[in-house]
Specification:
The complex is a heterotrimer.
Chain A: H1 2-21, H2 23-57, E1 64-70, E2 73-75, E3 77-78, H3 79-86, E4 91-104, E5 109-115, E6 125-128, H4 130-136, E7 143-147, E8 153-161, H5 167-170, E9 173-176, H6 178-185, E10 191-192, E11 194-199, H7 205-215, E12 219-223, H8 224-232, H9 240-261, H10 266-277, H11 282-314, H12 318-325, H13 342-368, H14 373-377
Helix pairs in contact in A: 1-11, 2-9, 2-11, 2-13, 9-13, 11-13
Chain B: E1 2-11, E2 19-29, E3 34-38, H1 45-52, E4 60-66, E5 81-83, H2 89-99, E6 100-103, H3 115-120, H4 130-143, H5 159-171, E7 177-181, H6 189-204, E8 208-212, H7 216-219, E9 226-231, E10 234-240
Parallel strand pairs in B: 3-8, 3-9, 6-7, 7-8
Antiparallel strand pairs in B: 1-2, 1-4, 4-5, 9-10
Helix pairs in contact in B: 4-5
Chain C: H1 3-35, H2 37-46, H3 58-61, H4 70-73, H5 84-87
Classes of the chains: A alpha+beta, B alpha/beta, C mainly alpha.
Amino acid sequence: MNRSLERHRNILDFALSSLLRRRARNISLFVLYTLIVFALASVVFFTQALKREAALLLKDAPDIVVQKMVAGRHDLIPTDYGLQIAAIRGVKEVQPRLWGYYYDPFNSANYTLVVPALQPPAPQFIHIGNGVARVRRLGSGDLMALMTYKQETLLLEVQEILSADAELVSSDLILIGENDFRTLFDFPRDVATDLTVTVTNPQELTTVARKIVARFPDTRPILKSEILRTYDAIFDWRGGMMVVLLTAAVLSFVIFAWDKATGLSAEERKEIGILKSIGWETSDVLLLKSWEGIVISLSAFLIGILLAYAHVFFFSAPLFEHALKGWGVLYPSFRLVPAFDFYQISLLFFLTVLPYTAATIIPSWRAATIDPDAAMRS
Amino acid sequence: MIELSHISKSFNVGKGNQFTALDDVSLNIDRGKVTILKGPSGSGKTTLMTVLGCMSRPTTGRIKLHGINVSGVTGDAGLDTLEITSLPERFLTEIRRSTFGFIFQHFNLVKGLTVLENVLLPAYPLGENFTILRQRGMDLLGMFNITRHAAAPVDRLSGGEMQRVAIARALINNPAVIIADEPTAHLDSALSREFMTILADFKKDGRTILVASHDPIIYDSTLADTVIEMRDGRVTSIAERG
Amino acid sequence: MRKSDLFFVVTAINLTLLAGVIGHALVQAGRADSSLHAGRELAKTLQLTDLALFTEARYTRHPSQADRHAPFQDHPMALDHFPSGSFLRPPLPSGGL
């Protein structure tokens, strides 16, 4: 046992010496490898954490959201529908929702205006999300001017700024009273944006939804499960951006492995010949090559993962911010709750470390099995 | 004693460029003696040494090792004759590692490694305690007066110094047999004579020595016990001296 | 110190850090409920259905509410909002049962 350990240590020593001899090349390989792992792992950490947060935050989303459709498009729904739906068996409560988007030409931002059902702000007052406050540099007590569709200015005082902890759901929100909302958008009296339906028995959800559609064929019910599923599918590897990222990573890796696998240089071959001539067995040479592969791939993998974790959870993924922000002016500032996805990280390990090590060993196979007497003749 | 019986070695058997390097060679290498292989290039000296030193197998014929300690392979301490031609590769390598020390014509040192690392290299796979191994390496360097170069990259040394490193390396596993292929080819006369002195020390230690050379300093030396002449893969004469 | 020893030490450090990171994640996951509390309460009170991640367009701001036409409503020649659109799946067909 001790001999075996000593043998590994000796051969590892030699492997490290060999790697250091071609210092520049191996360092750049190492850095590149680490970068690839870093990029992929960052994405994995970020998306998994975000998905989990979405699931937790939206746990209490409405059971059913009922939208009215006109020619396949979302239209305003008569509140009268709500009264009738409330009468359906299995429905506990129906609440009309008033919400919409406001485009602020001042800074090209889109805000989401919501009229809270419970405790709405008093007339002329609004509560704003942290993102809005940031972008318009507003504090409590400041005035915000919104333009109505009738080209009149509506002056509203900021009563409260929503908690920074809730930014992920509230960053761009402006909570407003019903009358102000209707004035702003010239919103008709007897309609709402959509209806939320609460059912008495959660298992009856689909049945109730079906009844709603049967009663009002021009409506579209959106179930809570579908809302949650939307966020489950976010950042899916099939999505455009992710495919590009994955392809770039895989391609870089293939180039790597290719460089290794296209065989040894004459110098490397000569060296293996020398080793065999001084008494190294084929298995010793292969162990040497394995260690060379493991040193680089294992180190790069571990460091890449650690850096990715720090990047996403301690620094809130600044490298992704630009991509995620896109054309949006408002971007929520949030700290993700750390999550370690074992499955995907293990997958990353097997897809990077193993192929790289294999790519280091396999081309040496033939050279390692040559007859040592060839070295005598060189 | 190493006994060779009807050894033949051919390359590219069955192909158009079949070439017979050794043709029915039978001879004995005596234990503790210095044997010189003499002959022009292409006479099969190098092939004979690779076959003898377990680096390659003969096409036909048998090789027996008598009285040379090959513990670890035989297992049974009582056995002192071992036929090596039919051994599997693993055992052959084991014998080669522990029994034979090679000094190559072009030294075959690993460029970029230090002198000490080069000397220790043959022992790495054996898993010996590193501190002990390292000390042995340093002792060998001391023996050949190259301790000061221990940490230097081996390619920075002069030809003579490199050869001493090659010799030190051949001794790291304390072999019973030393095989040297044209050891003085790149040395001047002074260094060549110095080499003979080193060989004399080996002989005193009781090691068996086999040298292939066409350098008169070697084959005319008083140190030589047997001179075997070869030509075209055959032994043409065996001269026993002193 | 031998090179191999140095490598073992560095790797051991890395593995320890990795274990630390996994532990950190597990501990934080347990606390997730409390740190997300404010957001969850607000979402519940306001009956929110989406995260405020992509505010460029309707279908990116409320992907769960978007109908099939939403991506193209903004402008007759409107291209997909990039890159947000490439992160989200296409809207579910209407009548989502």
